[in-house]
Design brief:
about 20% helix, elongated, single chain, three-stranded antiparallel β-sheet, 4 helices
């Protein structure tokens, strides 16, 4: 019979052919061995991809700080896909969000808003410095998605600040087909190029349209 000292000399745990042997209450037990996870150094492409996703998230968070109405709009659209507004915003706008600019690098493909209402049609904008005159067409067929009482909204970027989204809310209705919008003077040159995004929302602010891009 082995003494207590001799028993203590036995290894507590050892591995043989993928099986781990160990002693419990003086009895030899066995279980399949699990390999220790090794940390792999991420590749340069993986690092770039992670950084791009982080930038996209930062851009999305910055965008939704612009105005609470944008949170409502994208929340409504995200519900159609059972997603949250950050994820759906990144899914739609990721191709035009630039890590170096921390903003939009191709304005025509950016969506300020997404929704199921009929968007502005045949949109045009005349400009006199910071005074804008947008026009649009109102479709004859409504089907509940193109109400004459829908309200006009306009998001925009200055050419030099693709990282700063701005928003103007108006009381102009879809049925008017014309608006006059005076932009606030934020210190940019009055002749600097503007990238505009016109869209509609229902009077109760629950339903929105896709935005339509116009360069001014």
């Amino acid at each position: 019979m082995k003494t207590e000292d001799e028993s203590n000399e036995r290894p507590r745990k050892y591995r043989v052919n993928g099986i781990t042997f160990y002693y419990r209450n003086g009895k030899l037990c066995a279980m399949p061995s699990t390999r220790e996870k090794t940390k792999k150094t991420p590749t340069e492409k993986q690092i770039e991809s992670r950084e791009a996703l982080e930038i996209a998230t930062d851009c999305a968070i910055n965008f939704f700080r612009t105005n609470g109405i944008l949170c409502i709009a994208w929340d409504a659209y995200a519900k159609l896909f059972r997603k949250n507004r950050l994820d759906i915003f990144k899914m739609i706008n990721y191709p035009v969000l630039d890590a170096k600019l921390l903003g939009v690098d191709y304005f025509p493909d950016f969506f300020f808003c997404k929704g199921k209402l009929v968007p502005p049609r045949e949109t045009r904008v005349n400009r006199e410095d910071l005074l804008l005159f947008p026009t649009w067409e109102h479709p004859d067929r409504e089907y509940g998605l193109s109400n004459p009482d829908d309200l006009l909204m306009m998001g925009y970027f200055y050419e030099s600040r693709p990282d700063i989204p701005l928003l103007v809310m108006t009381d102009v209705t879809r049925g008017e087909r014309f608006a006059q919008i005076q932009l606030p003077d934020l210190g940019y040159p009055s002749t600097e190029t503007l990238h505009l995004y016109l869209f509609f929302c229902s009077p109760d602010w629950t339903t929105f349209s896709d935005s339509r891009y116009v360069k001014a």
